[in-house]
């Protein structure tokens, strides 16, 4: 038996023993069920993260904690889910950062334009002191922040021309989310920013009443946007985290050992989703290229950053000292 196989087997055995030992701690615990909800379909990264979490928790508690998954907004939209967690009618969820920021405003600091240069830089801040501090502060609004999964970096598509610098955006009609930071970001870049619901945007692109939109690669791929959008720029202009989050009513019912398992499993499931997203993105970009989409891989990011300086001047102060601390951490 070669050394690699031997060490892999040894690692598998030690992990299985650790899980078994952990499960023994729960022998006397009364069985409990936690309902974990999200708003996307079973192919989405959120669901893959939720499935990984379910597997880890059930294994490590010897099945005493049963995780029930509710995808496809079956228990409500993201705001409804968070409100349900606060009062105890929903136990937990995987929720996009934007709606969480409606409950704790400082969470929106992560979505300032061109803040993070890479996924790794984002993970370092989110998994480090600043990100963990904000997770802890969710207790102020009766929520328990567990870990950061991700929606990912957002990129620009349009039907008119290749975009390599802010000048190329000038005058394009770009659909953005109904969020003032996104609207102002694209106005500063010279676009005619059009805030609208996603369902309306799909029709507007088909009819040509807007020229483009911005979303992560997985959305661009799954909605077949290459059919109306000839050009994509890997602008990575905004990084959107997502959170494993629980209601304090559900969290407080759990014994300490179960809380520890849940925190660890959430972090591992979040990291699993990040890896899967990276693999899927490479495949999705290849498929979009094959379908005829022209992709600008290296736009002039420095010029884009310069153009959105007024957005930082306008919004930076509402996040207290979090923005300067993040900027310092990224140096």
From TrEMBL:
One of its GO terms (cellular component) is outer membrane-bounded periplasmic space. One of its GO terms (biological process) is transmembrane transport. GO terms for molecular function: carbohydrate binding. Keywords: Signal. Pfam families: DctP. Residues 1-23 form the signal peptide. The keyword Signal applies. This is DctP family TRAP transporter solute-binding subunit. It comes from Halomonas icarae.
């Amino acid at each position: 038996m070669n050394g690699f196989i031997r060490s892999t087997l040894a690692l598998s055995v030690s992990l299985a023993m650790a899980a078994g030992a952990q499960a023994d701690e729960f022998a006397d615990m009364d069985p409990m069920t936690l309902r974990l909800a999200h708003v996307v379909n079973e192919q989405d990264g959120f669901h893959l993260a939720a499935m990984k979490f379910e597997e880890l928790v059930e294994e490590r508690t010897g099945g005493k904690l049963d995780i029930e998954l509710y995808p496809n907004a079956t228990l409500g939209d993201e705001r409804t889910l968070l409100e349900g967690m606060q009062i105890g009618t929903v136990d937990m969820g995987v929720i996009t950062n934007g709606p969480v920021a409606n409950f704790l405003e400082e969470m929106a600091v992560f979505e300032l334009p061109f803040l993070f240069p890479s996924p790794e830089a984002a993970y370092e801040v989110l998994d480090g002191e600043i990100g963990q501090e904000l997770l802890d502060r969710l207790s102020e609004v009766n929520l328990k922040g567990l870990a950061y999964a991700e929606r990912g970096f957002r990129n620009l598509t349009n039907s008119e021309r290749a975009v390599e610098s802010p000048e190329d955006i000038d005058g394009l009609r770009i659909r953005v989310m109904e969020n003032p930071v996104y609207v102002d970001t694209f106005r500063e870049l010279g676009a005619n920013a059009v805030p609208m619901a996603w369902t309306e945007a799909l029709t507007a692109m088909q009819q040509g009443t807007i020229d483009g939109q911005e979303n992560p690669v997985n959305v661009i791929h799954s909605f077949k946007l290459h059919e109306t959008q000839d050009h994509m720029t890997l602008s990575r202009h905004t990084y959107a985290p997502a959170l494993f989050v629980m209601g304090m009513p559900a969290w407080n019912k759990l014994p300490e050992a179960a809380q520890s398992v849940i925190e660890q499993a959430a972090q591992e499931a979040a990291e699993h989703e990040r890896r899967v997203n990276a693999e899927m993105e490479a495949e999705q970009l290849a498929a979009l290229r094959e379908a005829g989409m022209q992709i600008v891989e290296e736009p002039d990011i420095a010029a884009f950053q310069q153009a959105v300086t007024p957005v930082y001047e306008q919004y930076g102060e509402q996040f207290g000292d979090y923005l300067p601390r993040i900027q310092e951490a990224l140096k």
